[in-house]
Design a protein that fits this description.
With 280 residues, this protein is of the alpha+beta class. The chain has a domain of 162 residues. It is 43% helix and 26% strand. The chain has a 7-stranded antiparallel sheet with strand order 12-11-10-9-8-7-13, with helices on one face. The chain has a 6-stranded mixed sheet with strand order 2-1-6-5-4-3, with helices on one face. The relative contact order is 0.07. It comes from Parablautia intestinalis. Keywords: Signal.
């Protein structure tokens, strides 16, 4: 009996010891696994944080670069816009100032633009007496004999740029645009100075005609190379020398020297074949 109890006790002790060892190993494995899992989680967290930081930094860098580019583009567009508006304002302001005061336009304007500005009344022209006048000061298109109208644009002073013809009484007015202003270049001044222009020997000449008296006619021609540069003049005329105005007693002269009728006739034929009348 005692022996059986000893055996039973021994078996219980063995089983208990075995369970204790098994539990210890299980707990050890659980501790090891827990530590490994924790380490892996920490490494994963570190990698995640590093990846997140890298992405954030890349996003911040990309956004910063994009923002810088946008700011530069916006700045350039703003500057260009300001410069464009400034130039437009200067031009408009200069034109308005010229229209109101007759002062020079500060910005560079082409010949054609200046002539257009005069036609639409935005700027004045300077007369030969150095006084300003506007197109509204002229009697335009009324149909009266002394009214004016807009004529052609022709290079009247042989400088490669057109002048503006204002057709009117006694040949009207020829206007030249230079130095950012419009100037009176030539003007008809009555029956003794009727204005027209001709093409003679390959150049354009301004001509003033006097046919006021029967048996007398005189012509004065001027050639320019630029409106302020007179390079040649020519005078020719026909007049009766008989007090009774008898035909056949005419005298013909060219630049003060007497010439024959044939020479005078040939000269007039060349000149008047190209004359442009601007009284219409």
């Amino acid at each position: 009996m005692n022996r059986c109890r000893k055996i039973a006790i021994s078996v219980c002790v063995f089983l208990t010891a075995f369970n204790v060892v098994a539990c210890g190993q299980a707990k050890g494995d659980e501790v090891v696994n827990t530590e490994e899992s924790s380490a892996r989680q920490q490494e994963s967290s570190v990698q995640t944080v590093e990846g997140t930081d890298l992405e954030i930094k890349e996003d911040e860098t990309a956004n910063a670069d994009e923002s810088s580019v946008n700011q530069q583009e916006n700045s350039m567009q703003t500057v260009e816009s300001i410069n464009l508006e400034t130039e437009e304002d200067k031009t408009i302001g200069a034109k308005e100032a010229n229209a109101q005061t007759g002062e020079n336009i500060d910005t560079e304007v082409t010949t054609e633009e200046l002539l257009d500005l005069f036609i639409n009344g935005s700027i004045s022209a300077i007369s030969s007496e150095n006084s300003a006048f506007y197109i509204t000061d002229l009697d335009m298109d009324s149909g009266e004999w002394d009214s004016y109208s807009i004529g052609e644009r022709v290079d009247l002073d042989n400088d490669g740029e057109n002048e503006l013809i204002i057709c009117g009484p006694y040949g009207g007015i020829y206007l030249d645009a230079r130095n950012n202003r419009v100037y009176e270049f030539a003007v008809g001044e009555g029956d003794s100075l009727v204005l027209s222009y001709v093409v003679y020997n390959g150049s354009t000449w301004i001509m003033y005609s006097n046919r006021m008296h029967t048996g007398y006619e005189a012509y004065h021609m001027e050639k320019f190379e630029g409106a302020d540069n007179l390079v040649a003049e020519m005078n020719f005329q026909e007049e009766l020398v008989d007090e009774d105005n008898v035909e056949g007693k005419e005298k013909y002269t060219l630049n003060g020297a007497e010439i024959s009728y044939d020479e005078y006739f040939e000269l007039c034929s060349k000149i008047f074949a190209t004359e442009e009348i601007t009284t219409k």
